[in-house]
């Protein structure tokens, strides 16, 4: 979904953060703004989080994504719009773990770049002197240097409970900054990391055992029972072009026509629900 083509409207920012632990496998955190492309070319402009909103099935793009992508990831996680964060709070750097009763985990995490790195890019940042568009990676690498804080990490310490609407609370009222992500070197790109580095997701259901009952009762993470055939996609798919140029052309056509790349996976003659 994050593939770029000539008529792309913007990026689909996401981050994966790896925590190294003595004598065992690493743990990981993930965050993104959403599964759909934004309208910004500034990677640092988006607020990223470990919990996303479900697709808007009243739109064609949202309905297609729900019937294809959501059904497929439901096969791996029945709460497909979030990933866990509690495993980080349970583990010490030396590989020892806290007792469950001692684990303190926020409801949700948010990652925000400092204000000076956010905002719409200028033409000078988008295009070089010859009018060629500057690659978004080059913009990020040119913007950030060793010692910069690239993200401030905020913990949402509790959800919004029913009956508090009159309190006029906003998200920032429930956020506490708990960390900064700072570069120890200049940014580098790595073909090896792109191809070989693995980040394992953990299901958000694992967080629930550390939550108070009042949080669990809200059930804000939509759950789809994968034992129900209507909730999963299965393994039958139409043929996708093997020729690179044909595949690029079909991808671009899907994005331009439907606003997402997966309409080709929909049943023939499908219609939006009334």
TrEMBL record:
Source organism superkingdom: Eukaryota
Protein known as: Uncharacterized protein
Species of provenance: Strombidinopsis acuminata
